[in-house]
Amino acid sequence: MCGIVGYVGPRPSQEILIAGLARLEYRGYDSAGIAVIDADGGLNMRKKAGKLSVLRDSLTEHELAEGTTGIGHTRWATHGGPTDVNAHPHLADDDRLAVIHNGIIENFSALRAELEAEGVTFRSETDTEVAAALLGREYRKTGDLQSAFLAVVNRLEGAFTLLAMHQDQPGLVVGARRNSPLVIGLGEGENFLGSDVAAFVEHTRHALAIGQDQIVSITPDAVTVTDFDGNPVEPEPFEVSWDAAAAEKGGWPSFMAKEVAEEPEAVANTIRGRVRDGAVVIPELDGLDDLFTGINRIIITACGTASYAGLVGKYALEHWARIPVDVELAHEFRYRDPVIGADTLVVSISQSGETMDTLMAVKYARERGARTLSICNTQGATIPRESDAVVYTHAGPEVAVASTKAFVAQITALLLLGLHVGRVRGSLEDGAASVAELEALPAKLAHVLESEQGHVAQLAGWMADTRSVLFLGRHVGYPIALEGALKLKE
Ligand code: GLU
Questions:
Q1: What is the DSSP letter of 45?
Q2: 423 phi and psi, to 5 degrees?
Q3: pLDDT at residue 474 above 60?
Q4: Which fold has domain 3-244?
Q5: Whether pLDDT at 433 is above 70
């Protein structure tokens, strides 16, 4: 969901990779890493949790052997916290092969079990390392990175931009995309891959678009693209019209505009891996049915925008799980004497997972014996660590202060939770139909964003000088009206 860059050519690649990642910084991330194949055909890797400057400092302090084939990654953790070990690249085949990945591999736990049964051990908690290990296994069969890669991508479900290289095949980087972006940059005697053109725009403006479910191989002089069956595909050329300044925000006028446009993807990623045979099954809540069965009340606690998402969640939980739900502002919660105990489930919502009032509310609830579940967009944050369970939203990093995609992802997570708890408590009647509606949401959001844009801009212009605005709404439209009023004030 964050940044990917790949390079093959005559130049030392480390600075090209780091500068490319820096251009992708507008996307936000929690860790970064690079791998390069050096002149002696060795694969070297460095990865660090934290900002790119941490990686840069580490490379200055302890140099990494330089090489002209390389891949670089910025991560927004979805599987496993933001640690050095979980950062990408991930290695396999006795550390001779490196893989980076943006997205979510939905069937990773089945694949991991399969590999573990064969004796493979894993270093990280990521879904990505499973793809690396699979690629290592396939490579050992054929000794050919391209055919091994083809075999691997066909086993993966979900969303991925994947890049890989092997030290026995220097001068080659392979990549694939499904439900996640990847573009090719064409240079003179060198070629690039990027999760968007910002990754290479300072080197070339000649680019090739790669379609869904396609694989690309780049060498210094050649680019080949195929579909997932290995049939050749003619990629579509285009010229990048951005200047470097526009690249700072990926071509968007503001982070907020960019994040609004990412809403369909945020919702799709939050649903991903949580629907099985027409029912919502949240893997993180496996074995935790107790959280939902012995309770007679749910309190949702959050601040601001997240509390309005919580109000939508109240309607969903009451409708599907048939249990009373109250929504409490976290900054008031611990200053009164709320009636809570072991029969109460306190659900907290926070994009960052660090909202102080919400964290204090969760601690207060736990001290009084309540069960706690958090909805959070940031792996490894404090609130999930303080809770009995967590359902992550997979909205990707949100930079703008006014929340947009994180808000719709929170609502999505609450709808999933309502359907999950309803199923666990046996109160869900219209399950399959509701799940189908939920799965249709990303396409509907995309449709609204595309078709209403002009209309909204016109309304905004018309309203810009009005002195007061009244928002009206009923049922779930009521919290949306509250959120609309907040957005206007922000
Ligand atoms: N799912 C992968 C992880 O958690 C990739 C996350 C990303 O898109 O950066 O490591």
A1: E
A2: -65, -45
A3: yes
A4: Glutamine Phosphoribosylpyrophosphate, subunit 1, domain 1 (3.60.20)
A5: yes
